């Protein structure tokens, strides 16, 4: 998978920008604050229609403008033009100038793997952030996954509303609650199966990736879910807690409470791991993900290393770069070219960004 060209209109600090990229390595450098991360953020947004830095799409629109447009020519088995338009009302996406009505038909086409300096923050946040990571990666690999996820969330919202209604009114149909519960379990079970399969495949790769960079340590991911039971057991668990759920107007069980537990040498990395080990674990996960995407999709994802050279020593960086295939198109942002190995510089296309957000190819 290769991004051949990128065009931006009113994206962050860029008015108009058009760039052509190298098939293998692209280095984007300049001082802090000139727009290096904005550029790779646009590449990421072209893939999943969202930023990795903000939950508000409007933040991607250049100040004073009403919309932003990201366009890119992406080459896999075929070459296609992708487009994401974001305005204050929402967003629309196109492939080869044709509007795509379902996001699930768009976001499974371009796979991106992102490595950034503060990856360990994932372990300091709530399980919802780890589920978000899981959902993003699965949506990019399995087109059907987002459909089940959307259906689950829709039923969950309806069920929570009905639980509140039952509590406030003091009466209502338990039969309808049973219908909602059964639908929730139906979609939840499908999501659980996708997640468990994904984690099983990652676990076959992740320790080797961890050891190839950091030499020692056995890393695996444990998947915690309320749905690790039979359908009958899950249904009985809901039914025996109906009154409890009605009292708070909220569904207490389900795949919306799932979590990924990273175990390094059989110890929970959240509790027993150092910041360095946590960061290393996420790096290993992302590198395993590259191979998994290749197995699933038949082509490597696009890799973004955002300011990674400020976070790792040269030895670890060398190990990361060493295990990357030349078939992986990579984007590196940095403030200092001296931190990058000369052999990498020789085969890279270099883009320098100055204080006026002017991009110069070198």
Task: Describe the protein.
By secondary structure, the chain is an alpha/beta fold. It has 2 domains: 1-111 and 301-362, P-loop containing nucleotide triphosphate hydrolases (Rossmann fold), CATH 3.40.50.300; 126-297, Up-down Bundle (Glutathione S-transferase Yfyf (Class Pi), Chain A, domain 2), CATH 1.20.1050.90. The chain is built from 10 helices and 15 strands. It has helices at 36-48, 127-141, 143-169, 174-214, 231-240, 242-248, 269-272, 275-297, 314-322, 342-347, and strands spanning 2-11, 14-20, 25-29, 67-75, 79-87, 90-95, 98-100, 112-115, 219-224, 259-264, 267-268, 302-306, 330-334, 348-353, 359-361. The strands form 3 sheets. The protein has a 6-stranded antiparallel beta sheet, with helices on one face. Strands 8-12-13-3-14-15 form a 6-stranded mixed beta sheet, with helices on both faces. A hairpin with a 2-residue loop joins strand 5 (79-87) and strand 6. Helix 4 crosses helix 5 and helix 4 (174-214) packs across helix 8 (275-297).
Task: Provide the domain count.
Answer: 2
Radius of gyration: 22 Å
Largest sheet: 6 strands, antiparallel
CATH architecture of the largest domain: 3-Layer(aba) Sandwich
Q: H/E series, N to C? A: EEEHEEEEEHHHEHHEEHHEHEHEE
Helical fraction equals 40-55%
Strand order of the largest sheet: 2-1-4-5-6-7
Overall residue-averaged pLDDT value = 90
Give the helix tally.
10
Q: What would CATH call the homologous superfamily of the largest domain?
A: P-loop containing nucleotide triphosphate hydrolases
Uncertain parts: none
Number of strands: 15
| Highest-level CATH class of the largest domain | Alpha Beta
Distance between the termini: 23 Å
- Which class do the helix and strand fractions yield? alpha/beta
CATH topology of the largest domain: Rossmann fold
């Amino acid at each position: 998978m290769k991004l051949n060209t990128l065009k931006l209109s009113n994206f962050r600090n860029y008015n108009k920008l058009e760039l052509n990229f190298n098939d293998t390595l692209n280095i984007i450098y300049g001082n802090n604050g000139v727009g290096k991360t904005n550029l790779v953020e646009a590449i990421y947004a072209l893939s999943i229609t969202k930023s990795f830095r903000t939950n508000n799409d409007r933040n991607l629109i250049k100040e004073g403008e009403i919309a932003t447009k990201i366009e890119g020519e992406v080459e896999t088995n075929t070459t296609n033009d992708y487009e994401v338009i974001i305005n204050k009302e929402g967003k629309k996406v196109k492939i080869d100038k044709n509007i795509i009505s379902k996001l699930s038909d768009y976001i499974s086409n371009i796979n991106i793997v992102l490595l950034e300096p503060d990856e360990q923050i994932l372990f300091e946040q709530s399980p919802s952030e780890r589920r978000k990571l899981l959902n993003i990666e699965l949506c990019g690999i399995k087109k059907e996954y987002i459909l089940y996820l959307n259906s689950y969330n829709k039923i969950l919202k309806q069920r929570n509303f009905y639980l509140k209604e039952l509590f406030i009114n003091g009466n209502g149909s338990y039969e309808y609650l049973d219908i909602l519960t059964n639908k929730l379990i139906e979609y939840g079970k499908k999501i659980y199966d996708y997640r468990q399969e994904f984690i099983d495949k990652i676990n076959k790769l992740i320790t080797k990736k961890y050891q190839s960079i950091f030499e020692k340590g056995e890393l695996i991911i444990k998947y915690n879910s309320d749905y690790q039971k039979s359908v009958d057991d899950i249904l009985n668990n809901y039914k025996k807690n109906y009154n409890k759920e009605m009292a708070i107007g909220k569904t207490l069980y389900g795949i919306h409470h799932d979590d990924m537990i990273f175990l390094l040498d059989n110890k929970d990395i959240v509790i027993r791991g150092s910041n360095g080990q946590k960061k290393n674990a996420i790096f290993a996960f992302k590198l395993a993900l590259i191979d998994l995407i290749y197995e699933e999709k038949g082509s490597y994802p696009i890799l973004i290393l955002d300011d990674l050279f400020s976070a790792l020593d040269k030895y670890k960086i060398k190990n990361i770069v060493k295990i990357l295939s030349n078939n992986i198109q990579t984007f590196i942002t940095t403030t200092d070219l001296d931190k990058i190995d000369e052999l990498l510089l020789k085969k890279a296309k270099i883009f320098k960004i100055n204080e006026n957000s002017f991009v110069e190819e070198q």
